[in-house]
Amino acid sequence: MQEQWAKRADAAEGAIVGRHLRRVWAMPRTALGVVAWPAVRRERLFTPFHYWWQAHLLDTAVDALERDPTPRRRRRVSKIARSVRFRNISGWTNSYYDDMAWLGLSLERAQRLFSIDHRAAVSVLESQLFDSWAPADGGGIPWCKGSDFFNTPANGPAGILLARTGKLWRAQATADWIDETLRDRDSGLIFDGIRRDGTVERALYSYCQGVTLGLETELSTRLGEPRHRARVHALVDAVYDGMTESGVVTGGGGGDGGLFNAILARYLAFVVVHLPWESNEDIRAREIAAQIVLESASAAWNNRLEVEGLPLFGHDWTVEARLPSLSGDIATFAAGTVRSSSVPERDLSVQVGGWMLMEAAYVVSAAGYPRKR
Length: 373
Known about the structure:
The protein is mainly α. It has one domain: Glycosyltransferase (Alpha/alpha barrel). It has helices spanning 2-19, 41-44, 51-67, 71-88, 97-114, 119-131, 152-164, 168-182, 206-223, 226-243, 260-274, 280-302, 348-366; strands at residues 21-22, 32-33, 149-151, 193-195, 200-201, 244-245, 248-249, 305-307, 310-312, 332-334, 337-339. The mean pLDDT is 97.
């Protein structure tokens, strides 16, 4: 199984490199993901940019480097990181705390695992997140600068980054805030966010569950306090019951939504590898998390299209992928989010999500799952 998932991850990587990765404005030693395939001219010119999609492209490139370290993959990670800074023009930061947290996580992993030095960038991003903590306003940290909305997509990845950079007390406070403020007492799942006036936005998104699992697992490993492991156990069960059918993560979309389910898969794989193994409940949570990742990846692979020998993944892993074209609407940025193209498979987010899922399946298989009975 491990070899099979390695080959599938290789193919997904090849599809992204072949269809999407391009120099930025013909500058040497740069590479970013064109946000669509096929792309219109302004997309090929990296207008728009979609900062957080590129952060996940970088993080998944780090996954591939970790799976099979080669000089080419290492150069690719360096090029993508350099290009995000170059294309962002104003520096490493932007106005959205969730965006900065995603980029900080990818840069920190590249630095920690492969000594690709971005210490200054990680420090800048970490400081933005640490300084935005606003308990007097009801947070947590806000979604973006000047916002009264405190959401899981900002606080979850920020908490993970703060844990990995040594600010464990703030990471733990973030996890406790999410659990106390945004956990649905009925389903056990994590809501989207809360406004300053106390209004809870009750939408349930898969990536909110993913980053919460990642944060609680990180704290389980670093602090050993039982409440974090117990929350992982409960949330893995809630995800299986509320967001899967026969173990396959359901739904999905294009635009920003093209990454949601894959982020859940990434952190389910993190649970499989890193959750402390001290009780039957730990073992069960790992096994359920592994099942979800592997069943979802199998469904996505079986429903892919093959275009010139490389996979094109569907936006919904349970449905056969559709071949995109230049007809119809293209993805657009509005009200802080990127709306889907008419055919979601056109969006870089969907295809990076498919690659991320294949890398997660490789990680789970390399950890020895599925277990032989």
